[in-house]
Amino acid sequence: MQLEFNLRLSISDRNFNDQLDEAAAERARLHEEQLARAAEEHAKVLRGAELELQRLNLEEERSRLRNQEEQQRQIEQLQREKAQQQADAQRRQLEAQRREEEIARQAAEHQKKLQEAEARQKAHREQQAAAEKQRIEKEETDRKAKETADAAEKARAQQAAQQAAPRPAVPAVQAAPAVAPQPAAAPKAPGTAQAPNAAIEIIHTQYLELHQRMKKFRVEFWNANKKPGQPLKAAIGDARRNMRLKLGQINVERATSQVAIKSLRADSFDVALNAPGPTVDIRPFLVGQTIPPLANEQEAQYPAFLLYMWIMFEKFLLKQFEKEASNEDGRIIQELGLIAASLFADQKYMWKGITLIDVLLAKMHHICPILFGVRGNMNTAQGQKRLGWMPIDKQPPTGEIYMQRIRGLSAGFAAMSLRAFKTVPALPMSEYWRVVVHVCNTPSEDLYPGHFAILGGLLRDFKLKFLQFYGVQARAVLRRAVVDLPARAPERCKEAAGIISVFQEQWKKEKLFLN
């Protein structure tokens, strides 16, 4: 019994131990499986990470290649643009060179024609003088021969009479004195060219003197205020830059002009008007205006900063007129003229109701005297200066640039003067009439191509306004300008006069007839 019990107990222990071993083995197996699955999952994560890293590296490489290609494309684009700019610059240089060569060739041909014409005229005069001398000598010879024949015939007649009827001797007949030969009529001297009106010369001199005062003031004012620490230095620079920028942005859109003139007033002229600073006696800068009586010298003071702005404005404005003259569309010059006329007529910037238009006119008298009836001779340095033939932008003048400057300034003058204002205009409409008539009244011997460039600038875009304001009288002046004046132009002006003479045919297409 005891043995059986022990046997069963032993069997039970063995079974229990076997169960424990099986359970331990099962747990070990499960643990191994979990470890295997964890290792497999870890391997999957590692492979995923490696693949993601490869993808990121590949994407980064692709991005680098794209950036490199884009940079290369931009470099090539810049190289192409630079090459194009260089080609354009070379082309413009060649065109400018060709134009200069053409102008030089035309000038040489013109000079050659003048010399040939002078040689022909000289030969013709010499032939006429020789023929006249021969005629006089022949007349003198014929006269003497006739006198000799008459004397001989008279002596024979007297001798025959004496022989036929002898009479007491009488004193010998005194021979009639020979008639002194009449001197040949001296050729009539050509009419002396009519000197320009003295009033024109006086006014022109006054404006030239004003221009010198303006130049002196401008240099001294800026030198005094450009030094570091000067309170007006920044304001002057900003106002001047804004003025140049806004005038350069003008186009044919009226809205742009309105924005520009608003900025010119607010950011340039108002700044100069309201900025504290020195003043200047304005009377030396007024030429064509009547100075009212003043209670004291203080009333003659005007803001120096504002006067400086007017001087800079006329410089930028006239330069813009010259630049825009190269465009066939003259509307930009008309917009510039509108802006200038509006500013000069603004009471806010006047002195005691007097406009500062003389500042602009002084500059125009300096660079374009021919516009105001001043005459000269292109064969002399002084005459060239009086006709506006002077360096432009510190470069020697050429025929093309000279004519463009005169056209632009004339068109700008027309754009400022040929306007109807509700208030008194700064530049009266009558000044336009005066300039046109000055050109039409120029004697033929004083005409040069510049006179016809003036007419081109004054008439091309403004003839309808001229007719609108002056009616029949304007029509008569237009006929004198485009028909009569070109017809009496000297040889040196034929090409320039031809451009003006075709206006009549062009205007007929616009239903404008001068007959």
TrEMBL record:
Residues 157-176 have a biased composition (Low complexity). One of its GO terms (biological process) is poly(A)+ mRNA export from nucleus. Pfam families: GLE1. GO terms for molecular function: inositol hexakisphosphate binding; phospholipid binding; translation initiation factor binding. The keyword Electron transport does not apply. Keywords: mRNA transport, Nuclear pore complex, Nucleus, Protein transport, Translocation, Transport. Residues 61-156 have a biased composition (Basic and acidic residues). It comes from the Eukaryota. GO terms for cellular component: cytoplasm; nuclear pore cytoplasmic filaments. The keyword Cytoplasm does not apply. Residues 61-176 are annotated as: Disordered. It is found in: Nucleus, Nuclear pore complex. Its main location: nucleus. Belongs to the GLE1 family. This is mRNA export factor GLE1.
